[in-house]
Queue: 2 jobs
Job 1
Amino acid sequence: MGNKIKFLFNIYSFVEIKIKNEFIEVDVDATQEFYLTQNDILEDCECDDCQYFYKNFIHKPFKILEIIKKFGVDLSENLVDESTGVWCVRNDSHLLHIFQVYQAKGVIHNPQKEIKYSVIEHGLKMEIRLYQSAFNVIDIELTVNKL
Ligand SMILES: [Zn+2]
């Protein structure tokens, strides 16, 4: 998962994550610490769709979820800023659409400050869009659509 580089008496511990030949510097420890202060999804919404996302979807071995977890993100949490549950649409228990925003601490180095990556697995198109939303803050938008 790239080299771990430590600076300044371990105050910062950045990990390099590579997506589509683009390197992202991620402070995994700071991201994990940030997630200690966010909301459990089910604290924000207990509807069937949120329960499905929380209890089922995020535990599947999907490649896109493994990538998000590398950043130190807790998939079972909502950002306090967007505490409205997960946007999840199902039809007779078939998954049609998911949209959820996560956040990590780090820096995207390409000039666009944005990286998109998608993967098709189990008849689902799963995409992440990463962008630098503030200093040392990367927003991670997860979108899933049934093909
Ligand atoms: Zn809900």
Job 2
Amino acid sequence: MAAAKKRKTPEARIYDTFIVGAGISGLCAAIKMKKEGYHDFKIIEKATRVGGTWRENTYPGCGCDVPSSLYSFSFALSSKWSHLFARQPEILSYLEEVSEDFGINELIEFGTELEHAEWDESRHLWVLDTNKGQTLARTVVFATGPITEAQIPSLPGLDSFKGEMFHSAKWNHDYDLTGKRVAVIGTGASAIQFVPQIQPKVKELHVFQRTAPWVLPKPDMDLGDTSKQLINKLPIIQKSWRKAVATSLNVINFGLRNPAALKPVSTAAKQLLRVQVKDKTLRKAVTPDFTLGCKRILFANNYYPALQADNANLIPHGLVEVEGNTVIAANGERHEVDVIIWGTGFEVSHPPIGRKVIDANGDRLSDLWKDTSPEAYLGATMKDVPNAFLVLGPNVLVYDSFIGLAEAQLDYIIDGLKKVKQKGITRFAIKPPVLKAHNDKVQKHLKTTVFNSGGCKSYYLDQNGRNFAAWPWSLKELKRRLSDFNVGDYEVVYQSAEKKKAA
Ligand SMILES: Cc1cc2nc3c(=O)[nH]c(=O)nc-3n(C[C@H](O)[C@H](O)[C@H](O)COP(=O)(O)OP(=O)(O)OC[C@H]3O[C@@H](n4cnc5c(N)ncnc54)[C@H](O)[C@@H]3O)c2cc1C
């Protein structure tokens, strides 16, 4: 049992709902609640700006791998995108504009971090401690993000490194890479975006690759002023494009659930590699040895050319040790470098919000998740965590825009909030048998998907090899399941029963 934090004098003000985080999910929650006529909510954000992921990740080349027509809110399509796939600064501006246009900015309490959230069983309230004081709320929406915690491996000798060192998610823009000897660790989604940007300016670029990713050509395009004006005048273009992108992602998703269907794509991708990478040794080193789709498919046109530049050196092994300023690969290859850039991704199987939340039994979620990853019902509600929702929680990941997933989940959450209010429910918690049956089915169906059977170790799998991230069916099915908050799935306490008990 976690030691309960000493409570301060409670604020008189009790909110209906408390939203934590003002990234895409938190903004979407606030917009949808406002639209439904809910005004009794508070939204906090620990940073001083909205944007979440797109505020934090500013590395060179950072951008979206889903076309912007789809990576945008369904209720706020934009005609301003400069490319088919938007870059980070544009996505951040878009989110700031949406927040302003929908009147959310003024509702956000910036610079406010949730430090401790504890369920008070006697009052059916959440007691929420922030760096600015205490708030009480009947319900909470944790929109604190699925991919936030930069992961840096602890390696022997790392302490002895005297050069510069930073993670892609905390890019040091004050450090000039010009003429420097650079080690990039990792070849995931962020690395393949920043490697081509830094390669032309550095003296030496050593890229440590543990697993060769599938990198397909990115069908990107500059959208000039004429296209933007046309899209602005004829929004139907944007809508049709959005539909077309969604349809093609559905096809990819079908392949991920039925790996044999993606065989022609991987054959074509390997043929393309022959054209793109002339050197046979390098080509062999960058050819993936797992089924396409097992790890997130990456898209780039400039990654392989960057690796073939004279100053670039792909090391098809992980970094295992550091000795002073010398980085040492698993095959013993050694290089003296001035800077290490970690493109090692994020710790996603244990969301940091777990360290702040105490459930109805007095247990800290991170303690419960110590030996496993979290489970939730439809990625949203957790066992013994009453009156609370997660956005983009476990097992809702579909190869699509996260914005679409967040919107679908928030439709479920807001339907739930509405029903709870209408029915006078003061406490609701997912029924353990419902949660178990759901997750057993999810895990059973994941077995045949490429994520579990494709022969890779991806971030979808936790330390025990359990897939905590993916949804095994179609996006349509996820949306169908999220279209109705079935009160029957929850153990509930009604206000009338409470009153009777008190009398
Ligand atoms: C580099 C990178 C590239 C990506 N590219 C894509 C892509 O191409 N396509 C795609 O679909 N998805 C992509 N994603 C996934 C991306 O995370 C989601 O698309 C989306 O931005 C998630 O939004 P969110 O609001 O749920 O979380 P976040 O954007 O992480 O926002 C969470 C917010 O909560 C705040 N917060 C957290 N804890 C607290 C606390 N205790 N108190 C107060 N505030 C708190 C944070 O400061 C943050 O602002 C990418 C992720 C990364 C890291």
